[in-house]
Amino acid sequence: MKNIKSHFKFNKQERSGIFFLLLLIGILQGVYYLYTSNTTNTNTSSLQIDSETSNYIDSVRKMRAQKKEPVLSLFNPNFISDYKGYTLGMSVTEIDRLHAFRKQHKFVQSAKEFQQVTLVSDSLLAVLTPYFKFPDFKRTYKKDNNVPNHENNFLDINAATEQEFKRISGIGDILARRIVNFRNGLKGFMTADQLYDVYGLEEDVVLRALKKFKVIQKPSINKIDINTASAEEISQLIYIKIDLANRIVAYRNEYGSFSFVTELTKIEDFPADKIDRIRLYLTL
């Protein structure tokens, strides 16, 4: 026992040495702890930065995908819908100016007149102009004050007989009869371009026909009010089948009255490519 106690007896100098040794060990432990803690935080921070960078890249890719420039094809600027105008870069005010102009039953005849009506910027007009397609019949119908309409060698498409249609290369008995039946179903063509809607007529045949026929006497028709008409009444228009007419009425019941005829293009399976002709038979 005395031998064991002798191992724990220290003089003053030895006790001081042990104290400083323990203090040094404590300091080294503290330095090690701080170093490892900073290293861990740095690594964690680096991982967070990498994660944030990855998320940012993903968001940029999504934004770019959403902002792809729309693929433009030729279109008649007289019948730009709200959605179409938005995708073209027009403001709501510019679109409303065009719709107000059209409500007066007027048509823009050139890119310059389009700008005068809508007040779009020169830069936007320069982008859109190459895609403007003004109907041929509009240019053909320009009146010469010195030459009456009946002297232009055109036949009235609303009065032409099957025999007269058959004089066009590519139109035989069946197609001539089909044109007349289509015209009767419409109660008259509002524009000669509606020949494109006759089943079986090839484009080159229509182009030849348009050199011979045009609307000289427009038909007197009762336009269909799409805000009050029933599905059965709407389906009387040859372009609209009963299923589509039911969807039009359902859309009207859900969202309220139509403000513009072009809103019809938002409805599933509506033939948006024919809206410029369909709207000629509709009213609000």
Describe the 3D structure.
The chain is an all-alpha fold and 284 residues long. It folds into three domains: 70-134; 147-220, Orthogonal Bundle (DNA polymerase, domain 1), CATH 1.10.150.320; 224-283, Orthogonal Bundle (DNA polymerase, domain 1), CATH 1.10.150.280. Helix content is 51%, strand content 3%. It contains 13 helices and four strands. It has helices spanning 2-6, 12-66, 82-88, 92-102, 111-118, 122-128, 136-140, 162-165, 173-186, 203-210, 231-234, 242-255, 275-278; strands at residues 155-156, 213-214, 224-225, 282-283. It has a two-stranded parallel ribbon with strand order 1-2. The chain is elongated. It starts with a helix and ends with a strand. 16% of the residues are buried. Mean pLDDT is 78; it is low at 137-151.
Radius of gyration: 39 Å
Number of separate structural domains: 3
Largest sheet properties? 2 strands, parallel
CATH fold category name of the largest domain: DNA polymerase, domain 1
CATH superfamily of the largest domain: Photosystem II 12 kDa extrinsic protein
**Strand order, largest beta sheet:** 1-2
- Top-tier CATH class of the largest domain: Mainly Alpha
Taking all residues together, what is the mean pLDDT? 78
Helix and strand sequence: HHHHHHHEHHHEEHHHE
Distance between the termini: 115 Å
| Contiguous helical run count | 13
Please estimate the helix content: 40-55%
* Strand element count: 4
Strand content: under 5%
Give a nutshell description of this structure.
The chain has 284 residues and is an all-alpha fold. It has helices at residues 2-6, 12-66, 82-88, 92-102, 111-118, 122-128, 136-140, 162-165, 173-186, 203-210, 231-234, 242-255, 275-278; strands spanning 155-156, 213-214, 224-225, 282-283.
